[in-house]
Amino acid sequence: QVQLVESGGGLVQAGGSLRLSCVASGSIFRITSANWYRQAPGKQRESVAAITSGGSANYADSVQGRFTISRDTAKNTVYLQMNSLKPEDTAVYYCNAQIIGRTYWGQGTQVTVSS
Q1: What is the DSSP string of 38-86?
Q2: Residues 6 or more apart from 4 whose CB is under 8 A from it?
Q3: What is the phi/psi pair of residue 87, to 5°?
Q4: Listed residue (96, 110, 107) closest to 8, CA to CA
Q5: Less CB within 10 Å around the terminal CB: N or C of the chain?
Q6: What is the distance between the alpha carbons of residues 47 and 114, in angstroms, rounded to a whole number?
Q7: Burial classification of residue 112, based on how many CB atoms lie within 10 Å of its CB (0-12 exposed, 13-18 middle, 19 or more buried)
Q8: pLDDT tens for each residue of 30-79
Q9: Cα distance between residue 77 and residue 94, in whole Å
């Protein structure tokens, strides 16, 4: 059974950095494309970064220039490097990945940015 397992969340001061990881386990097939979403309390889930099968990345305007999505094909892992964090980045971050045409979600990891 394929599972996406996120890690790397935590508490950080404004201006700090975190790197989130999303590992696909239980599959011999590789992640083709992936997204990072986030959901803050009382708000809808929103996409913050995406990486295509060709390696192209796209970002929400709110994180452009501060966040970087990448992947390690050999490790079947997707990363989200988050720099210059702001209190408004506080949310649960979810990984979403496509593997042989199916979409999987991780369980989420909490990111809290203090002012």
Answers
A1: EE-TTS--EEEEEE-TT--EEE-TTTTTTEEEEEETTTTEEEEEE-S--
A2: 22, 23, 24, 25, 95, 96, 97, 104, 105, 106, 107
A3: -55, -35
A4: 110
A5: N
A6: 22
A7: middle
A8: 899 999 999 999 999 999 999 999 999 999 999 999 999 999 999 999 99
A9: 14
